[in-house]
Amino acid sequence: MSRQLNNLFAFSVIGTTGRFVPFQGLANVVLEGRVYHRSLDITDKGHSMHWFLYDEAARAERAREQSLPEDAVNTVRQFLDRASPYVRTLRHALTQVSDEAMPLAVELSVPPTGGEIAAVINTDSLRHVNPRQVVFFGRGGLQPRFVPILSCQYEPLQYPLLFPHGTRGWGYIDNFQKAMPCTQIQWYRHLFLSDRRFQVLGRLACEYAVDMFSRTGEERLRYLQRGRRVHATSMDEAADPLIPDLFQNKIPASFMGSRAWASDQVTDSLAIARKLGKPSIWLTMTTNPQWSEIQSQLLPGQDVTDIPAVVCRAFRARLGILKAFLPSLSSRSEACHTPTLWVKFKQEPPLSALDIFISAELPDAEQEPDLYRQVRRFHMHSQNHLARPGSRCNRNGRCIYGYPQPITPHTHLDDLGRVHYRRRNADSCWVTPHIPALLKLLDCHIYVDVCSTAVIFLYLFKYLFKGPDRTRFSLHNMVDAGDEEDIVNEYKDYMSARYLSASEAVYRIFNFETVHKNPSVRCLPVHLEGRNLARMRRPTAPGFSTMSDLLWYFQRPPTELFQQLTYMEFFSRYYFETLPLDDPLDRGQVLITEVETNQGLRQKVVRRRAAGDIVTRIQVIPLHYKEQFYLRALLQVRPASSFQDLRTVHDHCYATYHEAATALGLLRDVSEAEYAISEAIAALRAPSPSDDATNLALEDIARHLSSQGSSLAQCGLPEPQRHHYGSEVDLELNFFHPHWAVLRARADAARTRMNADQRWIFERILRQQDPHGAACFFVDGRAGRGKTFLMAALCDRVRADCGIVCVTGTTALSVIHYERGRTAHSAFGIPVQDSDEGLESKISLYRARAELIRHAQLIIWEELPIAEMAVLECANQLLQDINQLPFGGKTFIALGDFRQVAPVVRGSCRPSATLNHSVRSSYLWDHFDILRLTIPIRYAGDVAYATWVDQVGDVVLPFEAPVPVRHLRHLENMDGAARFLFLDDSLATSPDAVRRAFLSPFNARHTNYKEAAYYSHDTIKEMDESSFHLPTGAEADLLTMLHEPGVPPHNLSLKVGCVASIRGNLSIEKGLVKNVRVQVVNLLANVVQVRLLQHNQLLTSQATDEEMQIFCLPRITFEFRPHRANWTVQRRQLPGSDAGPRRG
């Protein structure tokens, strides 16, 4: 009622370019867009200005239509007639308007110097809304003047009920006033805390809060925009008259809610995550209107929406209790009646410990009646969520939150990595997760969830730091006649499409903290040479200097301790301090130089941070600012002592930072492949003549593509002049044809060494080698039973008889010891994808690969237990399509040990998930004939140890048993251990290094020996079409944090002589498969030379071991999808990783 009553007597009308939003929340005065004050045409009989001048009866009639009490209307009118100076002067104001100036709108504004109110006439179109300005004719003048929003009469004109005596609001009294006794926000806060009218007239106070806070924000934006036009920054793009000044329409990060501010919050959070890791849990807290401190302040007839000041303060006090409850945890919060806190535990609790402090169950009503009542009120998902109109969780008839949740006896992760909390009965299936201790303490809704993946930051980007709610749109301007570019005017966007609620306005007026980060983050500036901006500090301030942090970083002491630190690492550990010249230096202080200050000559020193390292990050630079963006990329990954040093890569000083970043591998170079080939040729030897080299290269590529089920034509490559590679069947037969005698001899020799189990299986399988002898076998054997030995003998025997054996494996490492081995995905064309649903082979029935499978007499699948059943079923479907028989009518042999390996179900720890994906759950498992190997071979000389190993595999207690270690070589001092580990001869030439490893509980210190660093180029594959967008400049920071098993890291450090592991299956034929160990021989700019340490016996190799096993590895592109993300990361990096000390 207070808002309606005020509008009956207001001397102006509040309007918005958007709308007043009907909102049923805590404070239901919500508006969109720019706010303005104006009066309507005085001839409009439905407006209070007309009523004041001509017709008070019309005001009474409008009051009756709005069901306003007649006595209240009369009382307000009589009081304003006596007290308000505006009512007395309004009737006189109309007589000052000439007949020629027909008013379109009339408003009242600041009294002229003489103190008399003038008539305000707005002859502009009312469709054009200027931010917070009032137009009026001065006495005797014909031209309009503009009154800014800093007028002290701005508030009493619109809110006569809050300012019935015409008391001046915040603003300038005259043009000669230089300063104000308080800020706008302090003035509004004072009124809310001291003037009782702002509690009694609750809804009107909500409107006042929204109006005045938007008034403050608009004035700040106008000030910032004017300042940008006057003081344009000296960026390259701004200096070029042909390129628009992109900063001119950008709101700076100092304005809370701007895009730059949101980008800073994102990068601050990424910096904390880079230091501490992903958050452990996150919580959201919602205000409870029934809190006693709120209910006690309500007047008769009021509800909580009428007292936003009380609600905000009560909420803030409860939030302080919550933060005090977690004193030792790192948290980040965003608060405005529904804060979100991200908490990092010092030690991550195991999944089994979550049930101790997190609950998703309904407590016992008799044992814990208060908690039962609170859970029923705050943490029960609506059971009519799908039938209720407007339900936000209803999507296509299903709840997007998965309610009702399934009954679960224990907390676990599902296949997608979502946490399913313990719910042991049907009533608990509707309970949302919560912490009972906090629920009892704070008596409000407190949702909690576990952060199971770093992709939880996407929620942070999209929700917490998205800035104020607003309608987003772009303004399209023509930069020049031939190019159209999207230029967004953020000032107009913010003011014209803003969404502001009373609760947010009051919360901000009280200056309550909206974002808090612990630890805090220091942002380091980055600028081009000679372009550092002046600091906004008094020149008389102690330690004042025009030097930026970047320039001081270049001036750090020239010792190895400081020179090896990057920009962020240096300021995270050290800081600069200005001291009197005669002060002695303490321990830990290092003198840099002497500087001239207003207080005389002083010394600049570097000091180690006593409280420990802090979190630092480099200022986010958008890609628009090209060279500055590339300079930032270089500063993030390498130390430097000058701008020229940053541009120097591989002893060559480049002209631009873009060229230096490209040479370092941070950016993709279109000529990278050409450089890599040139380096490989120079490092090895140049073939002659060139035509022969081209033909040999094409033939080698053709053989490799053929092994992958592809061809040169499919890849757009020309055919070689001499066709020596033939079809896949010819390649397979020609590979073994010269060695049939050797193969038969090896098979016969192996048969004589077989034990009874192996010989029986060997003969059993050979009996099936006829056109009608199709069969499926699974050779089951524990570790050390000779499964691989048996399969190798079978391969030799079949191939010696001119037969074709297709050897496949679930992993490349499982078939590396077989000639012509392939992964099952490569052999059968099985696609690699996140979901196993709808797997279908990519091999055409008319391709060479299908022909090879059609002619194969024997198919072997190594480590079948690791494969998921969908993969096996996909291979079976291909075999049936080729020969129209189960498993293609082939003799199909699978082998492995279910005790050792099982399918890895990503993001799940439930045994049921593993069983559901296992091949033993497939309908094909019934077709297998199980052949068992039971006689130990590897531990045949130690029966007791072999028995104990079997008991461990069978989970037979007890696991603890005395094992004699007298036969093991042991050392008693570090010198002897070092000699054993690093060998007596050169580590760079000894292949025995692969047989040695150093087990360490930590990997923290083993990186000191590294020298060369290779950096990946990371992009988001779907960035152009995906809905996923990060704030500009933050993409690289996020992608460098992501780590994926089997994918090289962003920063790959290597040294000549170190041992590395291959990432990816490059060539099974050459032994370059995933996880195989190699030794680094040479480090070049675009390739790394490695020597294969695990010997691969290739029958046709005529080269020496050293020549055969040296390979050049270029950068390749890896693709992976972060867990629970809808976008794909493309990382271009060398296919390797350090294989140094292993965690024990």
UniProtKB/TrEMBL annotation:
Q: Which terms does the record give in the GO molecular function aspect?
A: 5'-3' DNA helicase activity; ATP binding; ATP hydrolysis activity
One GO BP annotation is:
DNA recombination
**Residue ranges annotated for the DNA helicase Pif1-like DEAD-box helicase domain, each copy included:** 754-942
Which InterPro entries does the entry mention? DNA_helicase_pif1-like_DEAD (IPR010285), Helitron_helicase-like (IPR025476), P-loop_NTPase (IPR027417)
Task: Return the EC number.
Answer: 5.6.2.3
Which residue intervals define the domain Helitron helicase-like in the entry? 199-320
Q: Does the keyword Transcription regulation apply?
A: no
- Segments traversing the membrane: none
Catalytic activity, reaction form: ATP + H2O = ADP + phosphate + H(+)
Q: Name the chain's protein.
A: ATP-dependent DNA helicase
